[in-house]
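Supplementary Text 2. Reproducibility record for the structural model of the 374-residue chain.

All settings were left at their defaults, and a single model was retained for analysis rather than an ensemble. We include the record here because the model underlies the residue-level annotations in Supplementary Table 4.
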Amino acid sequence: MPSTPLSILDLAPVPAGGTVTDALRNTVDLAGRAEQSGYHRYWLAEHHLAAGVASSAPAVLIGQVAAATSAIRVGSGAVQVGHRTALSVVEEFGTLAALHPGRIDLGLGRSGQRRVEAAREITVPTPVPVEARVVDGLLIPPPFSYAQVLASPRFALSSALLHQPGAQPPPFAEQVADVLALLRGDYTDADGLDAHAVPGEGTDLQVWLLGSSGGESAQLAGALGLPFAANYHVSPSSVLDAVAAYRAAFRPSTALAEPYVVVSADVVVGDTDDSARRLAAPYGPWVRSIRSGDGAIPFPSPEQAAALRWTDDDRELVADRVDTQFVGSPATVAERLRTLRDVTAADELLVTTITHAHADRVSSYELLAKEWND
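Retained model, structure tokens:
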């Protein structure tokens, strides 16, 4: 039986003491090494106004990665369509697909939509407290409430800078429908006027939806017969709801005859469990910086992380993410990834690794690929 494909999600992390140029060059270097190690696809995330993350323009970075590789699929995980038009997305990714045919993935996400909703002061409900549970060996922690993050001044500033004054994006389902129609070449407006995206129309882009819950993204991906990516690494509490909702809603399409799910995980692999834990030590403070509303800080070194002030409230703030990060030797992490695959019935796994030193991140991916494929 062939091994479940492994893929990579990269944020182009900026290390403490390093530069954005370092981060972007490290991403291009890592992509080439990932291709050599047999990873199936290489996705770039989209984040804005974060000192520790350089992947703010994924389409540009995807072009660099695709040009530096030859076979690995390259794409977005995911484009935040809440502050983009369907046409601009199709033209950008259509250009990439024309230059790199058969290799480009277009992942779409609702993050930008949620930013607009928060700016409209829509109340974000606090999850009802629940206990952590273990499902066939997979930890499902209590849900995390993003209300504090969405209410932060920096979140409002991000919304203001990403949108034209007064701009209101259409509903997510409408934007996805417009993207698909422009790609097919059958887009018409309410008056019957047609529009054709050049580049974009007729390109062989693989369109994905990404989601962190059993809500709109999962259900829409299923209804449209598109592949779906569920975020265990972002929202581990709801990953089972997400994949169940997707499969329940799935209808065969020209893209897929059966559901196809990729599930993400945060991973750090070292030569031993102890060495991996040392490399992963800065992860908690890094997540704390995001959830405090200030945005991701440059990724600390293990020594810097050890010197940071750390409280019980801080630990509680990041517990779900730290407890669900897969850290250890190649055998330890591979075993935990197999559990994730089996419990979610994932067709593919998407791993994301951040360490302070680029060499350690490269080594983590290489050690995992060797263990997984042996």
